[in-house]
From TrEMBL:
Keyword Membrane recorded: yes
Signal peptide feature range: 1-21
Keyword entries, A-Z: Cell membrane, Lipoprotein, Membrane, Palmitate, Signal
Name the UniProt record assigns to this protein: Extracellular solute-binding protein
Annotated Pfam families: SBP_bac_1
Low complexity composition-biased segments: 29-38
Alphabetical list of Gene3D superfamilies matching this protein: Periplasmic binding protein-like II (3.40.190.10)
Residue numbers spanned by region Disordered: 24-48
Length: 512
């Protein structure tokens, strides 16, 4: 057990470098830890507030004040201690707390990546199985079965999930540029290419200089542009079925077609030339400074992009599109497993079933509209108002970010299950993005391995993925040809990939 646990810990930090949490569009910044507190052991009298310590990543620069926490405590009859740690270094803190046995009663992970790496510890009995208890709680029992299934380990449920829309990826583009150049929203990849080429070559900003590019991208093959464009080409979502067996996406011919498309964009200067070394901050700056006309990622990013863009281009107009077809003529996109993060309950902190039920009771109350709205939107009249039955965020976004964001990222479920308000939007592009996010569910491609386990993937998946990631970037940059990419795939298989394929297929067959 110790050997397996050590292996998990060694990989946990490195795995975080491959995938990022999506959060609201994937933003992340540093903050300071606060309110360190020990977990509360033993039974607590039901008339007394349940004392619960919660560890979670902080995606803002400052730890939030206790304003929201104090109100939550009153509504849930709890005494809460929040241990906030900067999201950028959260895996390190998670590692340390896990290794020293000091995880608190409630442990939020960082993202799907850290959850995968924690599975070995889950199998070792270091976290409570909560599946048998959910039926005892009216609100927890409303969580979506499909998403719960995607978080199970060996068929058992250990976690609660923070829900996210299944498929919110798409294209955000300068509609004012497109209108000026007589270009419609693209309906297929050829039209997408035509738009990018025009944005570079036809002086869309009208300054008479050759200083614009089509697409701004970053060093992220998942939440950047690559995976979404690949889905337009019908590349499977991580894994797909071929010849009756599950195979990784990069073994499909459509993956090579996507590589050729990006290589063409790179050769023609339609994408930032150093995108493989570009951070999300720099990617966004290229767009909001007026140098790039297209951004592929979470369509919800349109709000922040618009807010900063109009500082430099007051007349700029943004719009979105996601119904973009590849060579088959059919539009498609990729889906996440329905969650952004999960919560685990360490057996080292929660000593018995009675205490576990007290903690679960808190989350059951969190899934009431009153508590969910408070934690997600803040105080009505201060951080938001209600219009047309939806929450309209205050114009003082900095105040809301500072006081509410830390708690917002911890709310389990989604509006359909916890009853909280949907967001009210008045930016036309964001309204369109919300409509397309719903429409995307009809064309979304799911990962068939989301609810499957592979021991080799858990222990070696991150290390092996770097082989494919490096080969992908090198091919696009033109320093690796098709034979070289195929050699990288062969290397992946030889160093453990074949075992991963076998294990996923065995789990897949057993589940059918």
């Amino acid at each position: 057990m110790k050997k397996r646990t050590f292996a998990m810990l060694s990989l946990l930090t490195s795995f975080s470098m491959v995938l990022s949490a999506c959060g609201d569009g994937g933003e992340s910044s540093s903050g300071n830890s606060s309110e360190p507190g020990a977990s509360q052991g033993g039974e607590k009298a039901s008339s007394q507030p349940a004392e619960i310590t919660i560890m979670l990543p902080l995606n803002t620069a400052e730890t939030p004040p206790d304003t929201i926490k104090n109100e939550v405590e009153k509504l849930t009859n709890t005494k809460l201690t929040y241990q906030f740690f900067p999201a950028d270094t959260y895996e390190e803190k998670l590692n340390t707390s896990f290794a020293t046995g000091s995880l608190p009663d409630v442990t939020y992970l960082k993202n799907q990546a850290t959850f995968i790496q924690m599975k070995e510890a889950i199998r070792d009995g270091q976290f409570w199985e909560i599946g048998p208890y959910l039926s005892e709680f009216e609100n927890l029992n409303k969580l979506k079965p499909l998403i719960l299934e995607n978080t199970k380990v060996d068929g058992k449920l250990y976690s609660l999930y923070i829900g996210r829309p299944l498929a919110r990826q798409g294209l955000i583009y300068r509609k004012d540029w497109a209108d000026k150049l007589g270009i419609e929203a693209p309906t297929n990849v050829d039209e997408f290419y035509t738009m990018l080429k025009a944005f570079k070559e036809q002086d869309p900003d009208g300054d008479g200089q050759d200083n614009t590019i089509g697409l701004t991208d970053r060093n992220d093959l998942v939440y950047g542009a690559f995976k979404t464009v690949a889905s337009w080409y019908k590349v499977p979502n991580n894994w797909g079925e071929k010849d009756g067996q599950l195979q990784p996406d990069f073994t499909f011919p459509e993956y090579m077609e996507t590589l050729d498309f990006f290589k063409k964009l790179h050769q023609e200067g339609l994408i930032n030339q150093d995108f493989a070394a570009t951070s999300k901050t720099d990617q966004v700056n290229l767009f909001t400074s007026g140098k790039a006309g297209a951004y592929v990622g979470a369509m919800s990013d349109i709000n922040s992009l618009h807010k900063d863009l109009i500082k430099n281009a007051p007349d700029a107009v943004l719009d979105v599109e996601s119904m973009i077809a590849g060579p088959t003529g059919e539009a498609s996109t990729w889906a996440i497993p329905g969650y952004n993060n999960v919560i685990l309950f360490p057996t080292s902190a929660i000593k018995d079933e009675a205490e576990l039920k007290q903690v679960l009771a808190f989350f059951d109350k969190m899934m009431t509209p009153e508590v969910a709205n408070l934690m997600y939107w803040g105080q009505e009249g201060v951080h938001y108002t209600v219009e047309d039955g939806k929450a309209k965020a205050s114009e003082d976004q900095e105040k809301t970010e500072r006081e509410v964001k830390g708690y917002k990222d911890s709310v389990i479920g989604e509006p359909e299950t916890n009853g909280m308000y949907e967001g009210y939007h008045d930016l036309p592009g964001r309204i369109h993005a919300e409509e397309l996010t719903v429409a995307n569910e009809e064309i979304a491609v799911h990962d068939p391995t989301a609810a499957l386990d592979s021991e080799t993937y858990t222990t070696k998946g991150v290390e092996l993925q770097t082989i494919i990631t490096d080969a992908t970037y090198k091919y696009i940059y033109g320093t690796l040809d098709q034979a070289g990419f195929e050699a990288a795939v062969a290397q992946w298989k030889k160093q453990g990939g074949e075992q991963i394929i076998q294990e996923f297929n065995e789990a897949y067959a057993a589940k059918k």
